[in-house]
Amino acid sequence: MSVWRDCGGYHEQLQRDSHFLCSDQRTDPDLVEKLVLQLNRIYPQILTDKEAHRFRNLSLPATVRMAELLNHLHGKGEEACHEFYIALHIHAEHIYSSLPSRVRQREMTDINWTNSLIIHPEQHMVNDQGPMFFLSCFSFVLGIAMLYYNREGETLRCTGPLLHCSAIRLSKGAKDVLISYAEV
Predict the structure, then answer these.
(1) What number is the average pLDDT over the span 134-140?
(2) Dihedrals φ, ψ of 63, to 5°?
(3) What would the 3-class secondary structure string for the chain be?
(4) According to the model, what pLDDT value does residue 86 have?
(5) Is pTM, for the whole model, over 0.70?
(6) Would you tell me how many other CB atoms lie within 10 Å of the CB of residue 10?
(7) Which is higher by pLDDT, 183 or 103?
(8) Which of the residues 4, 56, 89, 175 could staple to 96 if both were Cys, CB 3.0 to 4.6 A apart?
């Protein structure tokens, strides 16, 4: 609902959607009747019995009654416009979802959604050296940790091969130092 408020609120949205709602192919006499009854029964402060009777007058075409209802609701304020949209959503989902403001809102949401789906590979790649680099760094750290914890006592027999393996991606000087610790 916040998108509606960002676009100027229900009051302005109803003003923009009025032409669409009053077009001949959209305005059904039964729909006008349902909307008037909904607003009158549930929200009598928005549409009194006398006003509802005026909008239910079948001698007037449905387009005229819809236009008068929209003008009346527009004069009542933001809450009345909001309740009209709720009633329209309940009684005519197909018209509600094809309102110009709803179509624009969906398009904006789709654009924002697809923009958030763009994958930026450079954000997810820590380095370009691959999994072997990770494994060699991990085994190096593990080897150093094992040397640190076992330096005063007996060296573990498994640290030698582990340190040899971790020296794969290191420079020549680092390899020599690491291997010398492994052989000690």
Answers:
(1) 80
(2) -65, -40
(3) CHHHHHCCHHHHHHHHHHHHHCCCCCCCHHHHHHHHHHHHHHCCCCCCHHHHHHHCCCCCCHHHHHHHHHHHHHHHCHHHHHHHHHHHHHHCHHHHHCCHHHHHHHHHHHHHHHHHHCCCHHHHCCCCCCHHHHHHHHHHHHHHHHHHHCCCCCCCCCHHHHHHHHCCCCCHHHHHHHHHHHHC
(4) 92
(5) no
(6) 25
(7) 103
(8) 89
